[in-house]
Amino acid sequence: MSNDCIFKHTKEDAFKDFSFFDEKSIPIEQAKPLILQPLKPTSAIIITGYIPVHAIRFAINLNCKLNGNIALHFNPRIDRGYVVRNTKMKGTWELEETCSPVGPCNYIFCRNSYIHLTIFCTEDAFQIAVNGEHFCAFTYRFPLSDISYLQCDGHFEDIKFNQTNLQVYPDPKIFKSSPPLVLTEDNPLVEFLEVPINVRIGCEFKLGTNLFIRGRLKLLPHSFYINLQKGDTIYPHPIIALHVNPRFLYGSKEPFVVMNCWVDGCWRNEERHEGHLAWMPGRDFLLTIRCEHEGFSIWLGNKMVTEFKHRLKPSIIDTLRISGDVVVHHLAIDHVKNK
């Protein structure tokens, strides 16, 4: 299957079709390191460029002061249909994170097209958006203060750059507006469920509420997460009543699930379930989250995986967010009355 979007005859056609140019960006030379202003939370690096017809892969690197250290290596591999994120320490690559992004045009990085990338800095991670829509995150492995240079390599042309600050991410000025997805008992969702996804929960989340997520784990998964939260932004950080984060390729560790909540500006003490998980790469699954008296119970198929005691009132929940190496087929919610 081709990873190209709708065929455009020329580079000029691709330029005409592109609507995400940053007016304040300036041209930069490929492979030549560009000195960055000191990075801090709310810093944003904006990059636009052209992916040529013959493209195989390209990389955007945030290089450190110390030679041989790369804080962020963002590497779309167009020939393979996936993206690598990694760091390099003292000349040696560390554990990479991968994902195989699919969008409305099949692969999100299309040959013979222009793209707009935002690398946004939060307190603990880079948040990366493509054409205004959040694409992925990468937790810091180096402090922001170590980063000094931007460098672009590979099959990437007409590169332009801007460094700025954002108070809201994704940037509402370029985020594609679309009708919000609303989940209610009478309205299960089966369309427009491309991950990452925000869904407004249109009924009260309370004792007896059951949330059903049918999906498929991607091949070679790294991790994904499900948030039951208040609000739909990534930054400023929303209050999260339940964060469920299955992790798969973490070195030599067996797969495990991290659970936590975010309140008063920070994550609280995390809980882990390290028992056997029945998630299989490439296989469909049904995940159910039940709101019970003492807390949430998380079920995989007909087996309870783990529990998480309430730390916040479930009634604050108005948004479901899913992100990571998972495909979502179907979302449903119901409420079981107490007997």
UniProtKB/TrEMBL annotation:
The keyword GTP-binding is assigned to this record: no
PANTHER family: GALECTIN
Every Galectin domain range: 31-167, 197-334
Cited Pfam families: Gal-bind_lectin (PF00337)
Name of the featured protein: Galectin
Domain of life where this protein originates: Eukaryota
Residue runs in coiled coils: none
Swiss-Prot/TrEMBL keywords: Lectin
Organism per entry: Polistes dominula (European paper wasp)
InterPro entries according to UniProt: ConA-like_dom_sf, Galectin-like, Galectin_CRD
SMART domains per record: Gal-bind_lectin, GLECT
